[in-house]
Amino acid sequence: MAERLFPGGTSTVVLCSGNPSQAGAVQLGQALATKMSGVLLLTENSQHIGAETLQALSDMTVPQVAPTGTIQPFQPQPGKPTVYIVGDDSAISVKIQDRLTQMGYQVTRISGSAHEIRTQILNIVAPAIPQGLDASSFPSSWTMNEGASNHESFFPVSSTAPAWMKQGVSWNFAEQAAVPLNASFPDLANLGPRNAPVKLTQYLGNALGVTAVNGVIYAESDDYHLYALNAQTGALIWQVGPLNNSLMGDPIVSGNVVYVTTGDTGFSFSQVLKYQLCGGTALLVRGLLYSSLYAFNATTGIMLWRQDFRGNAMPTPILYNNTVYEPTGGGNLWALNAQSGALVWKTALGGFDSMSSPNLYVNPSTKQAPIILGTSDANHVVAVNAVTGAIEWVQPTTLNIFNTGMGDNSPAVDQANGVVIKDSVVNFDMANKTTDLAVYAMNADTGNILWSTDLGRGSAPPAYKSGMALIQNGVVYVGSPVTSMLYALDEFTGKILWTFSFANSGPAGAGRGNAVLAYGVLWIAAGPTIYAVNPTNGQELGTYTPGGRFGIVNPVIVGGTMYLGNSYDWIQAIPLSKIYPGVNLS
Amino acid sequence: MAERLFPGGTSTVVLCSGNPSQAGAVQLGQALATKMSGVLLLTENSQHIGAETLQALSDMTVPQVAPTGTIQPFQPQPGKPTVYIVGDDSAISVKIQDRLTQMGYQVTRISGSAHEIRTQILNIVAPAIPQGLDASSFPSSWTMNEGASNHESFFPVSSTAPAWMKQGVSWNFAEQAAVPLNASFPDLANLGPRNAPVKLTQYLGNALGVTAVNGVIYAESDDYHLYALNAQTGALIWQVGPLNNSLMGDPIVSGNVVYVTTGDTGFSFSQVLKYQLCGGTALLVRGLLYSSLYAFNATTGIMLWRQDFRGNAMPTPILYNNTVYEPTGGGNLWALNAQSGALVWKTALGGFDSMSSPNLYVNPSTKQAPIILGTSDANHVVAVNAVTGAIEWVQPTTLNIFNTGMGDNSPAVDQANGVVIKDSVVNFDMANKTTDLAVYAMNADTGNILWSTDLGRGSAPPAYKSGMALIQNGVVYVGSPVTSMLYALDEFTGKILWTFSFANSGPAGAGRGNAVLAYGVLWIAAGPTIYAVNPTNGQELGTYTPGGRFGIVNPVIVGGTMYLGNSYDWIQAIPLSKIYPGVNLS
Predict the structure, then answer these.
(1) pLDDT band with cut points at 50, 70 and 90 for residue B488
(2) ipTM of the predicted structure?
(3) Cα–chain-centroid distance for residue A12?
């Protein structure tokens, strides 16, 4: 019956012995098959696979149905499935294994004692949460987008941390809808070179980044799933989904609770028409499908509560003072009790938020903490009192902001100096589809603009328009997908200190994600490549191309490992030394 | 490890004996668990379920995480799972079964000989295609939206057809993302009474209808899946998915090939802005995600080929003369070779098609066969030469068409008289959100308007704006979700002959789907109800409320059974006599 359940074939077949003594192996095989979205087949006996099983296996080959290179989520790759044999030679003979190999199947045997088989399969299917010392050097919570107000997501480990953590680990984890790391864009012929990469990266993969807490890597995917992985091995601890829409942020983790949000980028036709008839003055609602904020138990993945919104909830929420804040495509900032999800207040922002994840600034004297975010239309930066929900200030900025503008870019905040850094595409020219990218520095208390710098003109990048800034040591580091360059600016004057060009940026441009400063090196993922750059002069120190492509991802560095999600629906752990062998990790 | 694979619990647990002699049952249990997206658990022995298994079962309870009544696709219902016991008392004792029942589990035992167990599970998981005589009275192909040019999807069966076909059968099939038939709308508090039903019905369920061919019911779902069911029993023959987007049409079936298309309703923000800046003159592209036309083997579900498009492919394609035609949200009509999917030609329509499924008119003297469809913006009706792809005529119609207009409604064609019937929301008033619905009759050769009739004013219905017409015996039957009424009009004058009001139409209005005339009775599904209406005077003859709600669904009647999909992601078979006990089926 396998061919009825999987008429299009499958990528994974788990082969168990049909011998009654192997019932335990069959149960483990079932778990493996379920995990891999594959099929379980039983052999006739230890020496013969059996005609029926052989036919079923043959039926599991995925046919080639579209031109080579057109790749889409959920569509298994054409070809024969990988075969897992569960049990040793006495259960399923080497003869069977050899025959399958000769027939062109990739065969992996899981064998050993019953306990060993169980352990191996558990390691694939549902390994244990890392315990104790191994995780002690990790952050113990993650309360905002990119882990810190200044967008610095580097976490050095202590000298007593285990070797793997200090030296770095290497693994790749394929999420539910992963496409091969060496895949090309979908259907360039029909979609064109600007649209094809957008399809692949915007409806698949990890839009923003990953979260590292207590030895666990939490990752959100556009494929509607949330994943928790063992940071050392990349093994799946748990996954939940499908949720009700795409997940496009960093998971927020605190007090053994994970908070994630769901949303999508669409507008209805009635919104299109209303906007046109009102001459661009109507308040728009972005997001067509469901959108919610979910809370899960961080250890088990059990759902604790859910709050629904009108309009998308794509931004990463922010957790502060036992309250979770989420701005939406419906134009509101929602404040929810972090334990129960109960509404504390809701404030109309005067515009919709697309993907601008809120940040906050804690004023050291007043202890006020405005929540700061951008709206796409009107193209404003808005600060909202975290306690009362009152709007503290609104900054319309200048420079003819356009297109996704302020609502698709997340503010960075320098807590020590009370500075907000934000960027936006500006001066869009519809006739030739070019635009500028400009960076703004604002006073965090008043929103007053301290300086603004235009980073230069280029093709308007489709989707995910903006870069995101890192503030470190009086320097702002920001990429521009308009020029496909990385910039270092003086934090207090906006003067450009140096620039660095991304190679192979592709037709959609590169430089959306933000850099991380660690071990005196600037690390940034752009296009297909991860770069190590000298932060003082912009010289390239090293590169590594791990497969797939990167969007607005921010790399997270814990000890010697960079953790990041990509646009192909993979989570990757990469030792820093692989990117820049000369890095000094001590 | 069940709780790791299903941290949110599951709706289905399959319980097999851990006794080695039960390995065969375990394999069948695995198939059942896979089919039901559930988990397989093994008992310790025939008398004791075992502490570990009991704990795992307990972990499978789906927690209540949101206010009661907020229902969403993919989210299992809170509560204990249903337990299937595979095997007889000697494998898993009655004592275990009774204990589970006492603990509040719904328990179903699948038992008998090994062969009987296999047959029962196969019947659930992957029953056989109906063979021979039983299917001979069914249509043998389905080449266009709603099965016929005049939108009449009634197929009488011969007097020698089997009893079940003549008298009608009753079953409900839950698709992948089905929500309970008695579920309410999602989150009325946050979404409001107009948006909540749209969420539930537009991102779930069967947008349009089902297809009945050779004893098989083919159904498309917004949940990204295509299903083939046994028309007699409702058992699943095969399913494929997830495909790359929502499926919103009638499957087209011919020559043992099923054709379906995928699409979505979203606009990007750049489209919104471009449209506003151009004062509503820019050509829009509807559809954000992937969109394709797929061909599958109708017997096995194996994918044969796929053609990708820019912009959505929501309309049902039309098959004519070995060519498949599909209009898209990218504003083109594509003609593809029905065997290979190779492009024959592509014609720019001057506007985008949203959900207007093409029809055709074969001129009896010239043998020309223009493909006829509507575009949403510009709001035109367009006829394209089926052979050359040249545009034959364009009819902008009148009456201030607005909103989704002509592109969200499918033309009906009277082949005998060369008349095209099409309707559209018109005269939208943005201030008070009211609109009219108007019906147009056009000359199929020239597009010239023969008459137009305004059906009256009401609240603008959110999403799926229009009704769809049936033409029979010189009468046009059409529903209006604006007034939530069914109308009978004279086909040649447009004069309203009678009207019929839908009860419980709800805040989104009812009357999107089209009626079917069978056995001298008009049958139509609207809101939560199926109605039998006297076609000569509009008197109600009977009603039936099968659970769920209906959108633009068209009922398909074969013999004594009505087949239809609903907005809750179910496919239903309902005996006509249940709707109208007085129906004369002979």
Answers:
(1) very high
(2) 0.87
(3) 25
